[in-house]
Amino acid sequence: MLTITVLYDNVAHDPRLQTDWGFACLVEGLEQPLLFDTGGKGDILLRNMRALGLDPHAVSTVFLSHFHGDHTGGLATFLAENPDVTVYLPQSFPENIKDTVRQAGATLMEVSGPATIVARAHTTGELGTRIREQALVLETPIGLVVITGCAHPGIAKLVRQAQTTVGGDVALALGGFHLRDANATQIATVSAELQALGVQRIAPSHCTGEDARRALAAAFGANYLESGTGHVFVIATGE
Question: What is residue 1's predicted lDDT score, i.e. its pLDDT?
Answer without folding.
Answer: 87
